[in-house]
Amino acid sequence: MTTPLWTPSADRIANSRLTAYQHWLQDRHQLSFADYASLHQWSVENPEPFWESVWQFCGVKAQQSYDRVLDNGDTFPTCGEPSARWFPGARLNFAENLLRRRDDKTALVSLLENGQRRSLSYAELYTQVEKLAHTLREQGVQAGDRVAGFMPNIPETVIAMLATTSIGAIWSSCSPDFGFQGVMDRFAQIQPKVLFAIDGYFYNGKTLDTRDRVAEIANSLESIEQVIVTSVTCDRADLAGIDKALHFSDALSDSPAPLTFAALPFDHPLYIMYSSGTTGTPKCIVHSAGGTLLQHLKEHQLHTDISADDVLFYFTTCGWMMWNWLVSGLASECTLVLFDGSPFTKRGKLLLDAIDQEGITVLGTSAKFIASLEKAGHKPKDTHQLDTLKCILSTGSPLSHESFDYIYRDFKEDVCLSSISGGTDIVSCFVLGNPTLPVYKGQIQCIGLGMAVEIWNDDGKAVEAEKGELVCTRPFPCCPVGFWNDEAGSRFHKAYFAQFNNIWAHGDYGEITPEGGMVIHGRSDAVLNPGGVRIGTAEIYRQVEKIDAVLESIVIGQNWDDDVRVVLFVVLREGIELSDDLVQTIKSTIRQNTTPRHVPAKVLQVADIPRTISGKIVELAVRNVVHGEPVKNTDALANPEALDYFRSLPQLAR
To answer: In Å, how far from its chain's centre is CA 342?
Structure first.
């Protein structure tokens, strides 16, 4: 029997929002469940009463109620006509749900790398949204128009999104570390009417001016009628070089009309988000207002135990879906801590300091950040109080077994460590945390309520305790509306439903554990296949991370002698060279803890590893370079120059 690393106390279980929800189900509907597994089973087998209960328990604000919960609930979009339609008849507004509170409670705390701190109350946030929405309406912005943000993670970005969505316009954002072509690959497809932009930003000790890039973007997008610029690096930036530019402070009207929230259908478009774009032009994924709101309320309150008493932080940029997930915390009336800059400022100490200084209760970060803290020798439990911290969330890549151990050994013993996994495709999670369940090493705690997730083999059969494709067998409210400019739905269908008919295939390779949790072994398209045996890349990374000399790694399958051989590339600590002894240590560590098939045929040293702008390593791009194939969109990479290290390694030819 597997021993848990952490088990919630009886008091913690009793006082959780998930337990309150179960009491509510019992009182209202005479439903009781012996355990989470039975609750989850009910939620997927009875989607209409389940999603209606989430709507009611979490207090969704609607200007007009729904006629029923679900029409055509057996069919995903593009998989047949008609397809699932949630809460027909309802009229609601996303921004209104996030601005339900309008008092002096702190809504936003903004931290910058250079030490700047600001805060806004819910009342102040509402007032600024009201003023900006008035200006946007005067600019002619209407429901369905697109408004784009080339912005960092600061309050003005939240204000701009809320003002946009209060009108029913569609928000889309990129972070300012995107290059010109990366921005154009995204925004040129959606033709925004207004562009919110930044004069510059702080990162890794540097002040970076973005005004030339803003001017180039604005001049290249014929649809842009107004550019609204926030000054971060100075009091009031010179905007002379940017056509149609207006300072954000000047866009806050002195005498606005009262804020009105457009009453819109549940499936009205809210966000346009983008695939990573590393295999071609990014796909423009359209998410609905109602589906995003309902899913985030469920994940925040029932799975992350967030209430008005919480302080929620997630390290993210505005080019990653976790920003959208974070901002929805306003609908649960908590305080959000926004941070913009390098997470490794002061060797990571700045974010650790923020836990104590801001009273953070839910800390969201990446698996890479946690591993880097351990590599740097940080022991936060010895250097920080961490009294308020109750939950640590990790995503971006699978969290290694060693990182689980590190959190409970060196970070905090009494904390719910929730590895979560989903993605931009659903602007949320398929598998995630649970405040009432134990935490097991290497496992994501549970499958999300209402998500009919299974692991399927290549024959389309559900399997347990075996590796396979992560699928979702029934429609769910946060399924995208579709792709922008994909009227026939062919690209949307190809992305998720081509593998199995009317079944969402997410592209993750994983397994369901005997404890009811999940292990993600990597992306399906990056799975290694030596000798016809499928190996998830995360299985190798888990072992390599144990070796102190290795800072990070990336592994691919190289076509070789009518088969595939495993090739591992490593970035080593400064001053360390890849010796034969170190290669042997790496190989023996992998062999001892996995199988001989996992052992790389080649271990090679590189100076850097290519990543997307949101920080994910790109195995497919490296694989293409190694095979002499083109990488279709290097503008999607934060460090495209890193690919050069893989172009001229003579060891790959022998």
So the answer is: 17
Alpha-helical segments (H) within 436-536:
490-496
**423 vs 5, 88, 272, 294, 391, CA distance in Å?**
26, 26, 14, 16, 20
How far apart (Å, rounded) are the C-alpha atoms in residues 325 and 292? 9
* Owner of token pair 């729904």: 66
- C-alpha angle 358/364/369, rounded to 5°? 105
Nearest residue to 579 (alpha-carbon basis) of 549, 552, 546: 549
C-beta of residue 557 within 8 angstroms of C-beta of residue 529: yes
Which residues does 428 contact at the CB level (< 8 Å), separation at least 6? 292, 295, 296, 299, 325, 422, 448, 478
pLDDT digits (tens, 9 = 90+) for 203-216: 999 999 999 999 99
DSSP per residue, 366-428:
EHHHHHHHHHTT--HHHH----S--EEEEESSPPPHHHHHHIIIII-SS-EEEE-EEETTTTE
pLDDT in tens, 140-175: 999 999 999 999 999 999 999 999 999 999 999 999
Q: Which residues of 587-612 are buried (b: 16+ CB within 10 A; e: fewer)?
A: bebbeeeeeeebbbebbbbbeebbbb
**Sheet strands (E) in 130-265:** 146-150, 170-174, 194-198, 200-203, 206-209, 226-230, 245-247, 264-265
Q: How many CB atoms lie within 10 A of CB 10?
A: 8
pTM of the model: 0.91
C-alpha to C-alpha distance for 325 and 406, rounded to whole angstroms: 26
> In terms of Cα–Cα distance, which of 115, 113, 116, 117 is closest to 204?
113
Q: How far is CA 150 from the centre of its chain?
A: 18
**Structural contact between residues 447 and 40, judged by C-beta atoms closer than 8 angstroms:** yes
Cα–Cα distance list, 150 to 98, 162, 228, 279, 497 (Å): 22, 15, 10, 23, 32
Count of CB atoms within 10 A of residue 353's CB? 15
CB neighbours of 461 closer than 8 A, spacing ≥ 6? none
- Is residue 199 within 8 Å of 231, Cβ to Cβ? yes
Cα→Cα distances 513→396, 443, 445, 446, 589, Å: 21, 8, 10, 10, 24
Which tens digits make up the pLDDT trace of 266-295?
Answer: 999 999 999 876 666 889 999 999 999 999
For residue 533, give Cα distances in angstroms to 230, 460, 600: 53, 18, 14
The 10 Å Cβ neighbour count of residue 485 is 11
The strand pair at 362-366 and 311-314 is best described as parallel
Single-letter amino acid, residue 233: T
